[in-house]
Design goal:
257 residues; alpha/beta; Rossmann fold; N-terminal domain of TfIIb; 2 domains; 7-stranded mixed β-sheet; 4-stranded antiparallel β-sheet; 7 helices; 11 strands; 25% helix; binds S-adenosylmethionine
Length: 257
């Protein structure tokens, strides 16, 4: 995978179909309902907005949504869907905005596409600076699934039905906390090869990085329906506020005996 690889340019042509198969389009209404409940001043900013899977339905609920993405192809897909969302090309690791947003959100593991600890902290600092004083930063990320690797390699099945076989082949670099992945999608007689690379972080590392950016954890859930986050959770939805602004009675989970 070349160093100038960008996720969006490789994935845009199949993004809508892929997210449909993975249940992410069906889930978007629940995501939007969650995000809408934090919009304090009517405005939201999505980091890595993609084709507008979340931003478009959120804007249809009357929220003024802006977005950033570093992929021309993804921004084109978004522009084809709506003119209600103001999106621009940029790097979520380093952005600034004169506007202060009620909600800034980075969902569907997009934060992981920042491949270094430094760029991830820089992203959180940029987001912190763009938040309204009473704003919320919402992050959705999977818990790293590092079981089953042999010699730092693993192949797993993402989808197996009568029409599609989608496999994920991962190489783990534990020193840099990265997974270099090739998704192989077999459908009829065609096969597509879709690369990506991601830097995983556990939720507690994310909390520490957020603290470096002047944010503190206000809530953590297992899903968009506010299920309890516990040792069985496979992802987390975390809400951060500026330090000192936390308005929730949220209690951090304690470990099980
Ligand atoms: C997994 S997709 C998620 C898209 C959308 N947020 C969603 O939930 O469907 C990740 C998106 O982030 C964008 N992206 C990845 N790295 C980025 C970066 N450093 N700066 C801006 N956008 C980035 C990709 O182009 C892609 O559109």
């Amino acid at each position: 995978m070349s160093d100038d690889f960008t996720f969006g340019e490789s994935w845009s042509s199949i993004y809508r179909e892929f997210t449909g198969i993975r249940g992410k389009i069906a889930e978007a209404d629940e995501t939007v309902a969650f995000l809408e409940s934090y919009v304090s001043n009517g405005s939201a900013l999505e980091l890595g907005i993609g084709d507008g899977r979340v931003a478009v339905p959120l804007s249809e609920r009357g929220v003024k949504v802006d977005g950033i993405d570093n992929s021309d192809s993804m921004l084109k897909l978004l522009a084809e869907r709506t003119n209600m969302v103001n999106a621009w090309k940029g790097d979520i690791a380093n952005f600034s905005s004169e506007q202060r947003y009620g909600v800034i959100y980075c969902v569907y593991n997009t934060f992981r596409y920042l491949l270094t600890r430094e760029s991830q902290i820089a992203c959180l600092r940029s987001a912190s600076a763009a938040l309204a004083d009473d704003g919320a930063l919402v992050m959705e990320m999977n818990i790293p699934a590092l079981d089953g690797f042999i010699s730092r390699q693993k192949t797993s099945t993402l989808c197996l039905d009568s029409e599609n076989t989608i496999l994920s082949a991962d190489i783990h670099d534990p020193l840099n906390q990265t997974l270099t992945t090739t998704v192989l999608w077999f459908s009829g007689t065609s096969v597509k090869s879709l690369p990506h690379r991601a830097r995983y972080v556990y939720h507690q590392e994310l909390d520490t990085m957020a603290e470096c950016a002047g944010l503190e954890l206000a809530e953590r859930w297992a899903d968009w329906a506010r299920g309890e986050f516990n040792e069985s959770s496979r992802r987390h939805v975390s809400v951060y506020r500026r330090a000192g602004q936390s308005r929730s009675s949220f209690k951090k989970p304690t470990s099980v005996a």
